[in-house]
Amino acid sequence: MIKLDALYSGKAKTIFKTDNPQKLIMEFRDSLTAFDGKKKSTAPKKGYYNARISEELFRLLEEGGIKTHFDSMLSDTEMVVDAVEIIKIEVIVRNIAAGSLIRKYPFKPGQKLDPPILLLDYKSDEYSDPMINDDIALALGLATREELLKIRELALRINSILVEYLNDRDLLLPDFKLEFGRRNGDIVLADEISCDTCRFWDKMTGESLDKDVFRYDKGDLASAYREVARRIVPGISL
Ligand code: TMP
Ligand code: ASP
């Protein structure tokens, strides 16, 4: 496979075209931002840890019957993925109250949410990812009613698989963000599942092992991501 020009460079990943129009290369970088890009930094090996965590979780989900855009790893930080049409909706699944949920609503921090709460944001830097509902998604033409139903069902199945897997590795999953894409008339999981897009808490201590370490200056980001990689990716070299 030949890596061609960059198609798009986001805050933490760059997407490259390849000589196969059906495939893209997603490169995980060491840079990161928070609060709509207002806070910026880099952390050593962050791209590596996130790429390997995403790889492992995509493989796990594929084994559980969830279709994803994952194809293979080209290197430790470069993932080959299917070229899908990204649906401009960020799907957030919440199992424990944290983050913006406790800022905006009277949930107690750490309160268990059973059944999980599913929220939708419009994926738009211009509008700062505002929260939407099915009616807005339909009116904006972001997805069809059938697609929204399918996305909801997939997000909840993904949540069950991840919660169980992570629990066995002494990690809680308070919340996470998913993106989906269209591939040959089907909906598949896209983007990444990593310490940038999930909250991971140590089951015993409740310590944050994710991007909250950077958002709220809670310690060393690389150490937190390394610890998640160690627990999630069997045999990873750290
Ligand atoms: P929030 O509590 O800040 O709304 O975040 C909910 C989850 O979504 C959390 O696990 C982090 C993830 N997330 C992203 O992946 N991208 C974002 O831009 C934001 C704001 C949150
Ligand atoms: N990813 C978003 C940003 O870079 C927000 C966040 O994750 O907190 O601004």
UniProtKB/TrEMBL annotation:
Keywords per UniProt: ATP-binding, Ligase, Nucleotide-binding, Purine biosynthesis
Q: Which reaction does it catalyse?
A: 5-amino-1-(5-phospho-D-ribosyl)imidazole-4-carboxylate + L-aspartate + ATP = (2S)-2-[5-amino-1-(5-phospho-beta-D-ribosyl)imidazole-4-carboxamido]succinate + ADP + phosphate + 2 H(+)
Q: Which GO terms of type biological process are on file?
A: 'de novo' IMP biosynthetic process; cobalamin biosynthetic process
Q: What metabolic or biological pathway is this protein involved in?
A: Purine metabolism; IMP biosynthesis via de novo pathway; 5-amino-1-(5-phospho-D-ribosyl)imidazole-4-carboxamide from 5-amino-1-(5-phospho-D-ribosyl)imidazole-4-carboxylate: step 1/2
The keyword ATP-binding is assigned to this record: yes
The entry lists its GO molecular-function terms as:
ATP binding; phosphoribosylaminoimidazolesuccinocarboxamide synthase activity
Q: Which SUPFAM superfamilies match?
A: SAICAR synthase-like
> The organism sits in which domain of life?
Archaea
- The leader peptide range reads none
Q: Which InterPro entries match?
A: SAICAR_synt/ADE2_N, SAICAR_synt_PurC, SAICAR_synth, SAICAR_synthetase, SAICAR_synthetase_CS
Coiled coil feature spans: none
Which CDD domains does the record cross-reference, listed alphabetically? SAICAR_synt_PurC
Q: What is its EC number?
A: 6.3.2.6
Task: Give every SAICAR synthetase/ADE2 N-terminal domain span.
Answer: 7-231
NCBIfam families the UniProt entry points to: purC
Family stated for the protein in its record: Belongs to the SAICAR synthetase family.
This one is known as Phosphoribosylaminoimidazole-succinocarboxamide synthase
The protein's gene is named purC
